[in-house]
Amino acid sequence: MDITNDQDRYDIIFTSNLNSDDLMKNQNNGIGSESCVAGHAMATWFAIHLRCRKVIVITDTNVAITLEDELKSLISYIRKLGLEVHYKALKPGENSKTLKNAEKIWEQMAESEFGRTDLMIAFGGGVIGDLAGFCASVYMRGMAFIQIPTTLLAQIDSSIGGKVAVNLTQGKNLVGSFYNPELVIMHGKFLKTLPNSVLSDGIGELIKYGYLGNPELLNTLKYFGDINGFKNAIENDMVLFDDMIQLALRTKKVVVENDFKEMGIRKYLNFGHTIGHAIESGENFKISHGHCVANGCLWALRIAGKWDDYYFLRSLMDSYGIPVLLEIDVSRIMVYLRRDKKSENNGVNFILTNSVQGHIENQEKISMVDTRQLILAQYKENSNLSDEEFLLKIKNSARIQWFSFDELQKKLSVLAER
Ligand code: NAD
Q: Ligand 1 atom 30: the closest Cα is on which residue?
């Protein structure tokens, strides 16, 4: 897959082919045969594209332990290319996305005489990708960086699209830039070690893509049934799992290619995020990002009065163990909505979806085998669409509506009492 925007061009390598044969076949660099998917992909690509001497790998301590073998192989691959490798593992979690950590990384690189043509690799979830990407975007006014996302959320969302940032105590992602990686390498294998809560965070973003004109994503989640069914698919139903990830990636890719700086259609990707972010901040980040996004989608459906879609999503969230937040503190939510980056003229631009066409109804009445076939056929039909047709489908799936803060407060208060 190849992604382009007006400033940049980068490759996305996604494979959930666990034996990595495809990548092995393509590589011809005489480096050996360790089973390191990221290493294989990168070594081949490196030889062609980059002129760096030094590489710094940024990760978190959790990932360093859980994916130790993969990380070691990756580092050994880079060393075998004759490059000097540096390494930094931060504490896991949102609290690491700070200017202080960015400064530590910049200082480590400056001490080790990194130049602009050297390379940073983010190996981890969205926190590491956002932080490392931000560091790379301003170190010597911009150095090359590669994303190797290891969570579902990072694979289908945060590693693509070039948004990089750190948090301030005043709020999330307040300092950042648009800066694309040179390459994104992702693999289904990384997802196998994710705890349920982290996996279901990514499902929140899959739900968002589902309501942007991709009913097959919602059908697939319904078909997998729950988080265990989803995990089972990562192990045993690569065809369907692959289709699902590819569709999510295509949605992000096509939208971002058309509107890198979020002047129009890219705003649709904020579906579920306006209320989602307000819940996230209002709850002091105790509820994770993806779970807040799923709830934001739920509230957007309530605001639009899309009750069938609302009940469908509510039951989906229940099945996946995503908390359903129907009792919200409206005045607290309003405080954060007023501070939202997208607010303007004493109101906020809200993304509302149209009803999703293409739900497979009454799944219990058709056999699981038939349901799976129907879903696969939907993916096939979708993949036959040209990028223009695909984009049009997304454009037709939602709309942007401006609400004054007063109007929104009234709506939320009425709904909160229902
Ligand atoms: P995260 O990076 O904190 O990862 C979640 C947890 O999973 C961490 O504890 C991590 O150590 C662990 N982990 C990572 N990979 C693992 C693996 N393979 N096996 C086991 N454990 C693993 O969180 P996240 O959900 O990946 O990302 C959330 C961040 O992404 C937030 O800061 C959010 O603002 C940001 N984000 C950015 C964008 C964007 O466009 N830039 C989009 C969405 C979200």
A: 126
Contact criterion met (CB below 8 Å) for 136 and 102? no
Q: What is the DSSP string of 340-373?
A: -TTEETTEEEEEEEPPPTT----GGGS-HHHHHH
Give the residue, out of 198, 277, 281, with the most ligand 1 atoms within 8 A of its beta carbon, to mutate for a pocket test. 198
Q: Residue 313 Cα, ligand 1 centroid: separation in angstroms? A: 23
Q: How far is the CA of 27 from the centre of ligand 1 (A)?
A: 29
Closest C-alpha to 103, from 55, 138, 63 = 138
Probe target for ligand 1 pocket from 61, 158, 209, with the most ligand atoms within 8 Å of CB:
158
Ligand 1 first shell, C-beta below 6 A: 60, 62-63, 66-67, 92-94, 97, 124-128, 130, 150-151, 153-154, 157-158, 161, 163, 173, 190, 193-194, 198, 201, 289
Give the separation between CA 401 and CA 386, rounded to whole angstroms: 28
Q: How far is CA 78 from the centre of its chain?
A: 26
Q: What are the pLDDT tens digits along the chain (418 aa)?
A: 434 333 344 556 655 433 334 433 333 333 333 345 555 566 656 655 667 889 999 999 999 999 998 899 888 888 888 889 999 999 999 899 999 999 999 999 999 999 998 999 999 999 999 999 999 999 999 998 889 999 999 999 999 989 999 998 877 888 999 998 888 888 888 899 999 999 999 999 999 999 999 999 999 999 999 999 999 998 888 889 989 998 998 999 899 989 988 899 999 999 999 999 999 888 888 899 999 999 999 999 999 999 999 999 999 999 999 999 988 889 999 998 888 877 888 999 999 998 887 777 665 677 888 899 999 999 999 999 999 999 999 999 999 999 999 999 999 999 887 7
Test site for ligand 1: of 62, 71, 147, 285, most ligand atoms within 8 A of the Cβ: 62
Q: Closest ligand 1 atom to the C-alpha of 190?
A: 18
Q: Is 191 helix (H, G, I), strand (E, B) or coil?
A: helix
Distance in angstroms (rounded) separating the CA atoms of residues 301 and 310: 6
- The set of residues, in sequence order, having a beta carbon less than 8 Å from that of 37 and lying 6+ positions away, is 15, 20, 23, 70, 185, 187, 189
Residue nearest to atom 29 of ligand 1 (CA): 126
Decide if 185 contacts 160 (C-beta within 8 A): no
Query: Which residue, judged by its Cα, is nearest atom 28 of ligand 1?
Result: 126
The answer to whether the predicted template modeling score (pTM) of the entire model surpasses 0.85 is: yes
